[in-house]
């Protein structure tokens, strides 16, 4: 994702929604997941199998 943009105001006002993690924690979780997927795909390719390229 090149750009994430959102305003949680409506969810807070109408649903009483509150964040559970900080922005920094969210970014860390997303990066950890991306790295995990990259490692998995690298291992798959290393053993001669095809991995899906999600950016195509």
Automatic annotation (TrEMBL):
SUPFAM superfamilies, alphabetically? NAD(P)-binding Rossmann-fold domains
Instruction: Tell me the Pfam families matching this sequence.
Output: GDP_Man_Dehyd
Q: Where is the NAD(P)-binding domain?
A: 1-30
The protein here is known as NAD(P)-binding domain-containing protein
- List the InterPro entries: NAD(P)-bd_dom (IPR016040), NAD(P)-bd_dom_sf (IPR036291)
Organism of derivation: marine metagenome
């Amino acid at each position: 994702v090149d750009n994430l943009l959102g305003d949680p105001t409506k969810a807070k006002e109408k649903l009483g929604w509150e964040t559970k993690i900080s922005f920094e924690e969210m970014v860390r979780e997303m990066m950890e997941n991306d790295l995990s997927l990259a490692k998995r795909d690298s291992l798959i390719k290393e053993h001669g199998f095809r991995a899906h390229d999600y950016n195509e």
